[in-house]
Amino acid sequence: MTKNSHSAYTDFKDKMTYSDYLQLEPILNSQKRLSDHHDEMLFIVIHQVSELWMKLMLHEIRGAITSLQQDQFQPAFKQLARVSKTQAQIIQAWDVLATLTPSEYVEFRDSLGQASGFQSYQHRQLEFLLGKKTPHILKIYENEPTILSGLQADYEKPTLYDEAIQALARAGLFSDKTVLERDVTKSHQSTESVRDAWQVVYQQSNRYWNLYQLAEKLVDLEDWHQQWRFRHLKTVERIIGMKSGTGGSAGVHYLKAVLDDYFFPELWELRTTI
Ligand code: HEM
Ligand SMILES: N[C@@H](CC(=O)c1ccccc1NC=O)C(=O)O
Description:
The protein has one domain: Methane Monooxygenase Hydroxylase, Chain G, domain 1, CATH 1.20.58.480. The relative contact order is 0.11. It has 16 helices and no strands. It has 274 residues and is mainly alpha-helical. Helix 4 runs antiparallel to helix 5 (73-91), helix 4 packs parallel to helix 11 and helix 11 (160-170) runs antiparallel to helix 14.
């Protein structure tokens, strides 16, 4: 399109404002408090900001999966580095939320009903793309067909880690068909053959530099993810103690129980065996 052509597109673009481009009207009119409690604004904004960052992370992880499928390691590294920087950013939100005291929170907690972070579908999409495939999660969205079909699609796709293992195979380091042709709708289980292959990558890093760097990017990502969960747990403990959750779980007890899951178990195990 040339600069002087007078299409509807150019007219619109010439007049487009900052808030048009960023769709600020819908975004900034979406903080609807259900109570008249002052601190509910903080609660809503923290969640919305976290969801926006999750949107970016999903975009970058999808990009990294596509890059890896084509053995394009450099773009994949850039995308994964951006994910980790975003994770570092999102963790800071807990410091802001921790300014909410138990007495402030109980004043508007009832107005949340049974809603819970447990239902964050972008969080579940992240888990699916990273490798935690929990079929019972899909049931939560039975009555929300649009969300369900998006989630189902990610549930059925190979994960970021599946693609990393395929890259190991293409490099001639891995050939175990039980892993390479696994049912990708299940969570990956730690396997000795996978650990052995990554161990070779670490021991001969000069020869397998791309895979070595990829492994460390995955460890970064998992490390940050665990830190996010730990900070969630501690912030929740600080605000609601041992009360049960609005989502029906045992609250902090539940969050503790699910803390010890790994997306990329062999990359952690090799630290012991190497
Ligand atoms: C006062 C603040 C918060 C409290 C008291 C809280 C409490 C809880 C509790 C008790 C659960 C367990 C499920 C349940 O029974 O409800 C949970 C799960 C969850 N929360 Fe929060 N939360 C808070 C803030 C946040 C924020 C800011 C996020 C960011 C989006 C978040 C994301 C999640 C996610 C993703 C889960 C599911 C975790 C899993 O199943 O592994 N929460 N939260
Ligand atoms: N599960 C929380 C409620 C909660 O935190 C929440 C409620 C509605 C929307 C997002 C929430 N955040 C994270 O779990 C609680 O038990 O207090």
